[in-house]
Design goal:
Blueprint (H helix, E strand, L loop, with lengths): L2 E2 H7 L5 H9 L3 E3 L2 E2 L5 E2 L5 E3 L2 E2 L8 E6 L15 H5 L6 E2 L8 E7 L2 H8 L7 E7 L5 H9 L2 E2 L2 E2 L4 E6 L2 E6 L6 H8 L4 E9 L2 E2 L8 E3 L2 H12 L4
Parallel strand pairs: 9-15
Antiparallel strand pairs: 1-4, 2-3, 2-5, 5-6, 7-9, 7-17, 8-9, 10-14, 10-15, 11-12, 13-14, 15-16
Helix pairs in contact: 1-2
């Protein structure tokens, strides 16, 4: 039975299924010399090329936790300066799970496990992500309460968030969605400019004391805890 093309690319460690669909739509994937289409299936004998490169073998799975510095771009496009793949410098191919904007620091998971990436990033699962935010001016409790209840972005209210004050202009916020530059935009709606934004947790993974710019493999316990929860989710 043919394997769906996006699943095939995910299993080969190239990208998540959602990213595979974007590559297919962009005409960057070929099957036996022809441009692939969304929904195509792949047989074991087929030649699959992504951006001119073949991906046939299932790789050994890799899981890396990075404390991303400001200025590093969350992209697999190695032609772009300051891309995260070049920053990591691995010989094996990995890709970032989700995004963290160029001005932000903190926890970024990189892997070649496409199934895990899909379950961590798909909106329907609403995995919680925690950030520490520093604003340009002191932020009132009333403003923090507005963040807790949700604000309107793109004519749709954000989900309720968990918010805890750390200092007069610093707080932690945990959200269960991932709109583009969401926390910066939420703060802008209530009249605050973000000076620093650091992601400290994704689901069960915690940044801990990992230094900015450093990375390490996930521990066996971290990976086990993450997979126990993700295993319960429907694909």
């Amino acid at each position: 039975m043919p394997t769906r093309l996006n699943k095939f690319l995910s299993q080969r460690g190239y990208c998540s299924r959602r990213e595979a669909d974007r590559l297919i739509e962009a005409g960057k994937v070929r099957i036996n010399g022809r441009v692939a289409r969304l929904g195509d299936g792949v047989e074991p004998k087929d030649e699959v090329l992504v951006e001119g490169r073949a991906y046939l073998e299932q790789p050994e799975l890799i899981y890396i936790l990075l404390n991303k510095p400001v200025g590093v771009i969350t992209t697999t496009d190695e032609t772009k300066p300051d891309n995260v793949i070049g920053f990591i410098g691995l010989s094996e191919r990995v890709f970032p799970v989700g995004r963290l904007d160029v001005e932000s620091t903190g926890l970024l998971l990189l892997t070649n496990d496409g199934d895990l990436a899909d379950k961590l990033t798909h909106p329907r699962y609403e995995h919680e992500k925690e950030y520490v935010v520093k604003t340009a001016e002191d932020i009132s409790e009333a403003d923090l309460d507005m963040l807790r209840k949700g604000v309107r972005l793109d004519r749709k209210r954000t989900l309720r968030a968990r918010v805890n004050r750390i200092a007069s202009n610093r707080f932690s916020i945990s959200i269960r969605e991932g709109r583009n530059r969401q926390i910066r935009r939420m703060c802008a709606v209530i009249g605050h400019r973000v000076l620093a934004l650091k992601r400290v947790r994704v689901h069960t993974l915690k940044l801990g004391r990992l230094a900015v710019g450093s990375w390490r493999p996930l521990t066996s316990e971290e990976l086990k805890s993450l997979k126990v929860v993700l295993k319960k989710l429907k694909s």
